[in-house]
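Anyone up for a design puzzle?
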């Protein structure tokens, strides 16, 4: 056991505790911004998937204005480009590795789009941090899209009819009736996505983001100690994710208790 983990190495690692504290701050900030970007993107994608936008709908009508029973015109008339694009985005992002997406965004997109080079908090490099947020946000949006879509569909359709009878527009119905109930239903799932992002954010150290795994890599390069820094990182991730999961479970129980009759 002593050959695997040496207790004498931990005091050496403590000399680099500032790197781990900085990595902790970056990881939390990266996760919060990722969930925010992912939620906004997912809401747009979910509305696109639920939309009824059919620009070629006129092809499905005959001369009398009635819908055709079949044929290529009927099929083409039902094509929804918004839903198609959103579905394609979700399926592609969910079916490819996060690492590949991070590399494409950083080495591909942001090699063309030049970002300003500066640091904030004294150590976070914007030109590396921002692509990490974009890549993780795009990935998170693909997963949150399905969560939001299922939340919207879980709201009773009769409430939409009631909103229309009261004279509310579709946007007002979505804003004041549908979304508040949908978000209440999916809030635990969104919070769980935050926990997932905390763990997945470790992949961004491959593009130079100064997160917890970047601190591990720095300590390993300076001291040639491998296992002990990984154990420290494991403890930090556990201290982030485990309490967050318990808090989420607590609020989930409180919310479900309020729904009981």
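Challenge accepted. My sequence:
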């Amino acid at each position: 056991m002593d050959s695997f983990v040496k207790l004498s190495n931990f005091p050496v690692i403590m000399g680099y505790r500032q790197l781990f504290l900085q990595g902790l701050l970056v990881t939390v900030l990266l996760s919060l911004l990722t969930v925010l970007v992912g939620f906004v993107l997912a809401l747009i994608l979910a509305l696109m998937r639920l939309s009824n936008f059919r620009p070629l709908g006129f092809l499905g009508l005959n001369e009398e204005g009635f819908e055709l029973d079949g044929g290529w015109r009927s099929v083409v008339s039902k094509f929804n480009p918004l839903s198609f694009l959103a579905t394609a985005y979700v399926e592609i992002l969910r079916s490819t590795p996060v690492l590949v997406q991070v590399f494409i965004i950083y080495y591909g997109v942001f090699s063309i789009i030049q970002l300003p080079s500066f640091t904030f908090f004294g150590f976070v490099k914007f030109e590396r941090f921002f692509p990490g947020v974009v890549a993780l946000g795009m990935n998170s949006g693909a997963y949150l899209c399905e969560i939001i879509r299922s939340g919207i569909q879980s709201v009773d359709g009769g409430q939409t009819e009631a909103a229309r009878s009261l004279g509310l527009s579709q946007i007002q119905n979505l804003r004041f009736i549908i979304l508040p109930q949908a978000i209440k239903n999916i809030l635990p799932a969104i919070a769980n996505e935050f926990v997932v992002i905390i763990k997945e954010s470790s992949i961004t150290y491959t593009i130079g983001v100064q997160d917890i795994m970047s601190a591990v890599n720095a300590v390993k390069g300076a001291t040639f100690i491998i296992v002990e820094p990984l154990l420290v990182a494991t403890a930090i991730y556990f201290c982030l994710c485990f309490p967050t999961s318990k808090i989420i479970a607590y609020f989930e129980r409180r919310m479900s208790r309020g729904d009981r009759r």
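A detail worth pointing out: The mean pLDDT is 88.
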